[in-house]
C-alpha cells in the first residue's frame, strides 16, 4: 500500500538535520500509503499531533524533554513530513482522524496524554471525542476544533484556484512564508531548512494545498459536518485536565479561538505568551516545555 513513484519521502536525506531531529521513526501502512511516526522512550504514552505546514519536527523540544519518562508518539500526517505523499489521496480531515486512530490502535497504547497544534486540534480532538476513555490529559497550542467564519486573507488567497497551486506547490509559498510569518523570533537558517526539507518538490507539497482547501467555510463543505460533530462532542472531554498554552501574536489562531476554548473548557489552565506567534513552541519553548513536563507528571 505504500506509494512509490508518487513521493520521495522515504528517500529524504536527513543527515543535514539530524542535530535537530535525532529521533527514532517507524512507518505504518494505512489505506493509500504509509505514515511515519516518531516513537521515543518508555512509560506513560504521550501523543502529539501537528498541523499544516509543519511536521513532527515541530515537537522536537517536547520529545526530547519527555522521552526520558514517557513513550512519545508523534505521527506525520499523510502528505506531511516523512510520510508518503500520494497524489490521488483525498486529504480530508476525516482521513487524518482515521489514520491517527489506526496508529493508536496499532500501537495499543492504552490511555494517553494528548498535545495538539493547528490542524492537530481538529485531528487530535476528532480522535479524542470518539475515545474519551483513552484520554488522560490534553495540552492545547494555538488551534481549534470548532467552526469559525474567520479566515485570514493570506490563507484565503491560497484557496484561489490555480493561484493556490502555483503559490503553494510551485513556489512553496505557504511553508516557506510560515518560517518567517508564524514566528516572532527569527528562525535560524538550519531550522528553516529542516522545516522545508520534506516539502522539496511540487509533488511533496500536495498536502499543504489540500489542508488549505479542506478548511470548511460553508455547510456544503464535506468537512463542515465533521468539525461541527467534533465540537458537539467536546463535552465528553470537559472533565479531563487541560492546559492551554497560547501564542498571543498568532495572526491565524488569535484570541477569538482562545476564547472559544475557554468557553468550552472553563476549568482549563491557560497561559498566554504575549510575545509568541503561531509556532508557539518555537517562540516560547523555554517556558512551555517545563509547564508541559510538570503537567504530565501530576497524577490524573
Structure overview:
With 300 residues, this protein is of the alpha/beta class. It has one domain (9-297): Alpha/Beta hydrolase fold, catalytic domain (Rossmann fold, 3-Layer(aba) Sandwich), CATH 3.40.50. The chain has twelve helices and eight strands. It has helices spanning 60-66, 93-107, 119-130, 153-156, 163-170, 173-181, 189-196, 206-213, 224-233, 255-264, 280-283, 285-297; strands spanning 25-30, 33-40, 45-49, 71-75, 112-118, 135-143, 242-247, 269-273. An eight-stranded mixed β-sheet has the order 1-2-4-3-5-6-7-8, with helices on both faces. It starts with 24 loop residues before the first strand and ends with a helix. Mean pLDDT is 92; it is low at 1-6.
